[in-house]
Design a protein that fits this description.
The protein is of the alpha+beta class and about 375 residues long. Helix content is about 20%, strand content about 20%. It has 10 helices and 17 strands. It is globular.
């Protein structure tokens, strides 16, 4: 999540001293990198060509989908639907961890007591059916997602938000239970959909019964060809309302993005070797070392590569329950740590794929001795 700078930086300090501020972005901590009116994020090519197709598999190894509603508990929605089809009020970027810039919202205002945030909806924002995105749509989305008919994690996620009030056609305020500098980012990440989704006559279908109803959203892609439960293709919307907006410029360049779904990992791996899709990630050391081999790799038709990055990565480990008396003595915890022969395990079981964890921020600039290592996700692609 993320947002602001220049006059926004001043606005941040005004907010902290008791004065309300309004800006094109919001930052939970410190400055905003990109000033108002910036043209594009630094890591994108604003002139990137559009076109082509890429075929992927879900990184979670999803084995099917049986609904089109990604917000309910029962069943499985198509992979990547939220990212492809649903815009949010604010959008984060790869340069700042706790800053967000306006997408559906052209302006964000935090109250002087930090008990509410108000968003102005971008006048050009449109749903895929051509309707404008209005404050009433935002409130409707919030109320549906925090209802008992939606998956319970949304009620937890928005648990410190009292409610949403429509102030005008394109103005909406969210009120908070208590001051919390993260809450503007939380409500800014709200996926917004049309009030017409699930409307039958004058009444709404129960949200948890909206299974095969196609979402009416406003994102960069629309739903294309579908083999229900197996494959899904997202087609880039040439009329996407935000295609020239600074937070979207240079992104979402493929005309079609297809996700293929396989019943098990062995079938998926063999399908990749046979050229059925273009790219996959590996999360298993044994698989990386022993499964991604063969003539296609030797001939260069498939490329196996480790790509270093500076983002905080995942890690595996053991956590001590310090409420248990036997673990309260630090010497006991140190003894357990010394008893685990990490080097032997890494060498004999994990093909030397792992390195010791030195903190919560693995492989990022915040890691202790971070210059000694960088995370290297294993990735393959078809040439």
């Amino acid at each position: 999540m993320a947002f602001f700078w220049t006059h926004c930086c001043l606005a941040f300090w005004l907010c902290m001293s008791g004065s309300a501020w309004a800006a094109h972005a919001y930052a939970q901590f410190g400055d905003i990198r990109y000033p108002a009116g910036f043209t594009h994020f630094s890591y994108v090519n604003p002139a990137a060509p559009k076109g082509g197709e890429i075929v992927l598999v879900p990184p979670t190894r999803q084995s099917n989908f049986d609904k089109y509603n990604p917000f309910t508990l029962k069943g499985s929605a198509p992979p990547a639907m939220l990212a492809m089809m649903f815009d949010t009020l604010l959008v984060s970027n790869m340069d700042e961890p706790t800053t967000a810039y306006g997408l559906l919202a052209s302006d964000v205002t935090v109250a002087n007591d930090r008990m509410s945030v108000t968003f102005q909806i971008h006048p050009q924002a449109r749903f895929h059916n051509g309707d404008p995105v209005l404050a009433s749509d935002v409130r409707h989305s919030f109320e549906r997602l925090t209802s008992k008919q939606a998956a319970p994690q949304y009620r937890t996620y928005f648990g410190e938000v009292k409610g949403a009030s429509v102030l005008g056609e394109r103005s909406i305020r969210f009120d908070f239970v208590r001051p919390n500098s993260e809450l503007p980012l939380i409500v800014g990440s709200l996926p917004v959909f049309s009030q017409k989704w699930g409307l039958e006559g004058k009444n709404y279908k129960p949200f948890d019964q909206m299974v095969m109803d196609m979402p009416i959203a406003s994102g960069p892609y629309r739903m294309g060809r579908v083999q229900f439960g197996k494959d899904i293709t997202y087609e880039r919307d040439p009329a996407y309302w935000a295609k020239d907006l600074n937070v979207r410029k240079g992104l979402f360049n493929f005309d079609r993005i297809t996700y293929k779904i396989y019943k098990d990992s062995t079938a998926q791996l063999e399908a990749f070797k046979a050229g059925e899709f273009d790219y996959m990630q590996s999360f298993i050391a044994r698989e990386w070392a022993r499964a991604f081999t063969g003539r296609a790799f030797e001939r260069g038709e498939l490329i196996k590569a480790e790509l270093p990055h500076g983002n905080a990565g995942d890690f595996q480990g053991f956590l001590f329950n310090l409420r248990r008396d036997q673990f309260k003595d630090v010497r006991v915890r140190q003894a357990v740590a010394l008893a685990m022969d990490f080097e032997w395990l890494n060498r004999q079981l994990f093909y030397n794929a792992y390195s010791r964890v030195r903190g919560y921020f693995v492989a990022s600039d915040f890691e202790a001795n971070c210059h000694e290592s960088r995370a290297t996700p294993r990735m393959m692609k078809e040439t």
